[in-house]
Backbone:
C-alpha cells in the first residue's frame, strides 16, 4: 500500500476511535436525544455509521472478488435499516457499532495492495478507485462524531482532516446554483478554497482557523470566530454529507 492510503487508514482508525468513545460517553436515555442532523436522534447517527461500515465492506468485497456488490441494495433499504437500528436498545446498538467497525477494520487490514486501484461505485453512483474507501470512512466518523451533539466539535478533528474535508466540499460546489460564491481562507492564508462560481460575482472572503472553516463548510456548529469580508453576515451554504 502506498503512503497515501496508509495515512488515510490511520486517520480512519483515529476517527473511528473518537466516534466510539463519544458513543461510549452517551447514557442509554441520551441515545433518544436530538443530534445535529434534522429529524435524526443520536441513535439514528450511530445506526447510520454502523451501516456505513458494512456498506464499505461491500465495496471491499466487490474489489476483491470482482462481483458487483453495491453499498446498499437501495435507498429505501438504507433508510429502513437506519430506522430499525435507531429503535434498538442502546446496549444492542453500541454492540452493533463495534461489530461493524471490527468487520471493516479486518477487511481493510486483509486487503492485498493490488486491489486498491480497482473501480467501485459509491451509493450516489459515482465510480471511484477503491483507494477512496478509507477517506469515505474518515469523513463519516469524524463529521458524525460532531453530529452526535455531545461534546465533540471540529476543534477535536485533526487539522489535516479539516483541510481535506473542505477540499471535498469545494470540489462538490463549483457551479452549484444553490451555492453562494465564497472564498474560504485559513489563518495566514496557508489554505484557500473557492465555493460556487466566481465568473460574474466577487466572492465573499471568509477567514478563520481550519476547524471553524471545516465546520462552516460542512454546515456544522462552528467552534471559533469567522471573519467575512466587510464584517457582514456569513453566507448560508447548502447542506453537505
Residues:
Amino acid at each position: 500500500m502506498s503512503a497515501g492510503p496508509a495515512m488515510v487508514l490511520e486517520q480512519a482508525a483515529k476517527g473511528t476511535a473518537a466516534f466510539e468513545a463519544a458513543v461510549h460517553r452517551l447514557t442509554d436515555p441520551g441515545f433518544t436525544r436530538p443530534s445535529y442532523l434534522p429529524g435524526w436522534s443520536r441513535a439514528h447517527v450511530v445506526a447510520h455509521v454502523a451501516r456505513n461500515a458494512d456498506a464499505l465492506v461491500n465495496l471491499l468485497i466487490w474489489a476483491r472478488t470482482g462481483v458487483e456488490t453495491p453499498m446498499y441494495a437501495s435507498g429505501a433499504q438504507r433508510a429502513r435499516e437506519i430506522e430499525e437500528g435507531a429503535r434498538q436498545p442502546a446496549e444492542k446498538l453500541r454492540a452493533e457499532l463495534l461489530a461493524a467497525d471490527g468487520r471493516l477494520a479486518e477487511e481493510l487490514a486483509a486487503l492485498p495492495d493490488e486491489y486498491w486501484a480497482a473501480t467501485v461505485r459509491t451509493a450516489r453512483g459515482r465510480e471511484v478507485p477503491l483507494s477512496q474507501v478509507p477517506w469515505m470512512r474518515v469523513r463519516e466518523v469524524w463529521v458524525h462524531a460532531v453530529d452526535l451533539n455531545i461534546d465533540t466539535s471540529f476543534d477535536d478533528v485533526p487539522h489535516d482532516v479539516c483541510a481535506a474535508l473542505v477540499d471535498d466540499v469545494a470540489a462538490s460546489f463549483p457551479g452549484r446554483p444553490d451555492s453562494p460564491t465564497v472564498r474560504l481562507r485559513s489563518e495566514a492564508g496557508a489554505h484557500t478554497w473557492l465555493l460556487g462560481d466566481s465568473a460574474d460575482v466577487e466572492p465573499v472572503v471568509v477567514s478563520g482557523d481550519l476547524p471553524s472553516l471545516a465546520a462552516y463548510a460542512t454546515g456544522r456548529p462552528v467552534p471559533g470566530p469567522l471573519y467575512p469580508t466587510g464584517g457582514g453576515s456569513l453566507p448560508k451554504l447548502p447542506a453537505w454529507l
Remarks:
- The radius of gyration is 18 Å.
- The chain has a mean pLDDT of 93.
- The chain has seven helices and six strands.
- The helical segments are 3-25, 42-65, 75-86, 90-110, 133-147, 159-172, 210-218.
